[in-house]
Amino acid sequence: MSRSASSSRGQDEPTTAPLPRCVAALVGILAVAAALAAGHLVAGFVDPAASPFLAVGDSAIDLTPPPLKDFAVRAFGTTDKVVLLIGMGAVLTLAAVAAGLLSRRSPVPGTVLAVMLGLLGVAAVYSRGNLSQLTVLAPAASLSIGVAVFRWLHTVASRRARRLSGPCAAAGGMGPAGTDRRRFLVTSAGVAIGSGLAGLGGQLAAGRVDVEASRAKVTTMVARHPRPAVPSGADFAGQGTPTFLTPNRDFYRIDTALSVPRLRAEDWSLRVHGMVDRELRLTFDDIATMPLQVRTITMACVSNEVGGPYISTADFVGVPLRELLARAGVRSGADQVFSTSVDGYTAGSPVAETLDPGRDAMLAIGMNGEALPAEHGFPARLVVPGLYGYVSATKWVTDIELTTFADKRSYWVPRGYSAKAPIKTESRIDSPQGLTTIKAGRLTVAGIAWAPTKGISKVELRMDGGPWQPADLGIEVSGQAWRMWRKEYDLAPGSHTVVSRATDGSGYTQTADQVGPIPDGATGLHTIVFTMT
Ligand SMILES: Nc1nc2c(c(=O)[nH]1)N[C@H]1C(S)=C(S)[C@@H](COP(=O)(O)O)O[C@H]1N2
Ligand SMILES: [Mo]
After folding, report:
1. Could you tell me if 168 and 31 lie in one domain?
2. pTM here?
3. Whole-number Å distance between alpha carbons of 181 and 186
4. Pairing assessment for the beta strands 397-403 and 269-274 based on DSSP bridges
5. 391 CA distance to ligand 1 centroid (A)?
6. Ligand 1 lined by 376 (C-beta under 6 Å)
7. Any bridge partners for residue 362, and if so which?
8. Which domain holds residue 65?
């Protein structure tokens, strides 16, 4: 093999006149666009999660300090991911422009930057875990195409700059320089169009996994299990509470996945291992032939502020986790059920809660009469009533390991959250909304209270600093779900303040102490100020 330093002389040869700034910037931007598109295209075929742009975004999410992440969740809800992608686009554009401007005389600085960006992509994809060996092809394509396109465009642009100098607005002219200019423009346009097509191709290739067809089959199966009817009087939706069951499209969504994992039930399997007597590998058909149960369960997010929206209720269909774990045989000493998602997210629940027959922890495959929606974990997720989602409700779950809390820490634990996190007894006022103005006269104050799995035994309201007075409770559907409440008032015009507090089945009354979501869930009393005219 000959290591000829001279072979690349033609490209590396410093140009006499520097590239005009806008040409240099354009070279940088097009190279980065081509790199991202190439990676996205290859990822579409090997594994959509390996797209370097998405992988870097996912890593950014994992590296975000929890208080900032909490802020993002509160400020943007699930649109925080769109905000992140736009932010990343802006940062990459700046990096691309910088790479271009640094390379006005020689392509070396830009090449170094392109290689660094490429390696960042490789590192990000590698850090996703759970990905196949092939996935490195995607960031490798980004790296090589990025460097190649950068050097190619730089060469074409330099040939032109050598004959021409001055600001880009004045660029142009006839003769040889005009030919070079045309050549650069055509090459640039070619790269831009090629990148667009490659990106689109990657998107189409990623979509070839037909999740919807797979969901339709599972929905048929799930629909065979009749759901209990929600008794009338369980909610006060007419007075402003949510409906007792949250429609799937309204169910709150929290996860670290920048792009929703696309799995087919046919390709899915679950491994149960660790401190067990028999390691299991179950396919979706194995799960579907086990006896399925239907349970009405309220899920809550630890990030929910007092009065916040991250709480919802659904009928979940699935197999009891207890049954699965009994098949594997949990060894004594194991105290943590450590679950992992196909995208590398992990959660750890106490073995005791998971095996508790009164709690009905489940591997769920259905939600409100249909297959799990892709965003909520299709084809299978865990649900453990009474525990915050981050320590229990792993979506797209593919691995369950029996271990100890001493040995393994799940996703949010090193990020400052508690390893164990039972849902706190809370209540929320849904109507009236804060800072609204209402016509004087009769008014119904209504809301929700929850304490899974203890159930709610009492909700009290305090109007304008008066005594605590009991509200009317809705019919209890299950101790694992929320309970609705309401109370009528006849109020004079003016400003009013109403506060709610709940008491659960164990006799514990919701504390007034105000704490934020970190480390194990917010507390405090929800307070609403409104005006009657
Ligand atoms: N794979 C995966 N599962 C996950 C999460 C995640 O980030 N990734 N987030 C958890 C958190 S914090 C919550 S509150 C629940 C939310 O479930 P939902 O989006 O279906 O409401 O999912 C849990 N399961
Ligand atoms: Mo959460």
Report:
1. yes
2. 0.83
3. 9
4. parallel
5. 9
6. yes
7. 320, 383
8. 14-206
